[in-house]
């Protein structure tokens, strides 16, 4: 059951980050990938700042912030 929650958080985080960065969605699989990679980036950044998330909402916020950072870096590299 944990992997399903993990994938759902990744999909929602990727979709939210795509909307925040004006890129729209990337499809279900793309949103999951962006969200999961974003959660790793967000976890690293928040870990450096001394913050940790133990709740589902905290995990979603961490994943969205990381996914926005990821999409920002991708947009810079594309230019």
Automatic annotation (TrEMBL):
InterPro entries: Transgly_assoc (IPR007341). Keywords: Cell membrane, Membrane, Transmembrane, Transmembrane helix. Its main location: membrane. It is a multi-pass membrane protein. It is found in: Cell membrane. The chain crosses the membrane at residues 28-49, 56-77. The keyword Transmembrane applies. It holds the Pfam family Transgly_assoc. Belongs to the UPF0410 family. This is GlsB/YeaQ/YmgE family stress response membrane protein. It comes from Agarivorans aestuarii.
């Amino acid at each position: 059951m944990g992997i399903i929650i993990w994938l759902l958080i990744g999909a929602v985080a990727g979709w939210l980050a795509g909307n925040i960065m004006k890129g729209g969605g990337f499809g279900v699989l793309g949103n999951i990938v962006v969200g999961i990679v974003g959660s790793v980036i967000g976890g690293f950044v928040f870990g450096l700042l001394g913050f940790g998330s133990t709740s589902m909402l905290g995990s979603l916020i961490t994943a969205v912030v990381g996914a926005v950072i990821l999409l920002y870096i991708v947009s810079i590299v594309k230019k």
